[in-house]
Amino acid sequence: MGYRRLGKTGLVLSEVSLGGHGSLGLENRIEVLERAAELGMNYLDTNITDECELYGKALGGNRKNWHIGFASWPQKLTEEYEKELSKQRFFNEIDGRLKHYKTDMLDIWRPVGATWGEGQTAIPTMLMVSHRVLDMVVEVFEKVRRQGKIRWLGFSAHNPKLFHRVLNEYPQFSVIIFPYLFLTEELGGNSLLKLAKDKDVGVIGLKPFGAGTTFGIKPSELHGKVDKNAHILVKKMLREPRISAVIPGVNTTEQLEENVKGSYEGDKQLTLKEKEAVRRCAENYHANLTEEYQWLRNWETV
Ligand SMILES: NC(=O)c1ccc[n+]([C@@H]2O[C@H](COP(=O)([O-])OP(=O)(O)OC[C@H]3O[C@@H](n4cnc5c(N)ncnc54)[C@H](OP(=O)(O)O)[C@@H]3O)[C@@H](O)[C@H]2O)c1
Predict the structure, then answer these.
(1) Alpha helices (H) along 239-271
(2) How far apart are CA 46 and CA 96, in angstroms?
(3) Domains and CATH numbers, the chain
(4) Residue owning the nearest CA to atom 37 of ligand 1
(5) Is 262 close to ligand 1, i.e. is its CB under 6 Å away?
(6) Average pLDDT in the 103-132 region?
(7) How far is the CA of 93 from the centre of ligand 1 (A)?
(8) N or C: which end of the chain has fewer CB within 10 A?
(9) Phi and psi (nearest 5°) for 190?
(10) pTM of full prediction above 0.70
(11) pLDDT tens digits for 141-164?
């Protein structure tokens, strides 16, 4: 497994890390976490509250070598949800996650700027975050950091413009987490990857397989099926040195093992056969992308 520095946090993460989605229950997560650690993974990224509770149970109070990042769920930083936000609620949720993981300190708090769910229903009010909310997040972070509860502040969203606002105006953010797909290419000029590099902000790529649409129509009826092209897609993503880690969600240890293989050949160019596999996967992704996930197309360049 290859490891990369996560920008100014100085954390060194496994370049293939573990996304929180895809659980098939507690026994399954215990197995996946154990195998992931054996394969050299050391970063776990969790989002929804129930997910944090489940991973907390699966780890059983033994953190081992895992660095853990978590979102602000159920609080969303979005415009529609803004009226529900308060500093006290953020503090309560952070304390709740510490309890779930049975720990005094977690590594990355990465409030989530774009997501649907209770209190956030419409796409037009989902994509921007106001200065008022960003100021509140920074204030909450400064306090929990001083208390020793959280080490680093991250940010996750689905709107590239929003990341430019955060990186240019708020030096308190050390990590950004956004959809980095296997087919994502760099946008010349105003690239978010370049900006993150200039600011020494770490980048973590989520939804590398387009929420799994690459491998079939979602939601999949065949949870846990292994696609032998997955490691080629991971290898391609890791050709981008400004990405510190990709975090595919996995249902099974077999999927995990397949994905991690992408790290073993990270220093090699893609062969012609591999390029052809990527092309076929891109065709699948475009054919299977549901209405709900059309916004992923905004992330085909970054
Ligand atoms: N805003 C946010 O903060 C946010 C939003 C979304 C996601 N995330 C994070 O990003 C992570 C990744 O996103 P994601 O899980 O939604 O999408 P993804 O990583 O693009 O796709 C994951 C799905 O792909 C399939 N898969 C994985 N490896 C495979 C393999 N080797 N062969 C065949 N199928 C394979 C699995 O589904 P099936 O077996 O069912 O096909 C799996 O659930 C999440 O786990 C989460 O931690 C964060």
Answers:
(1) 253-264
(2) 14
(3) 3-299 (3.20.20.100)
(4) 212
(5) no
(6) 86
(7) 24
(8) N
(9) -85, 45
(10) yes
(11) 999 999 999 999 999 998 888 999
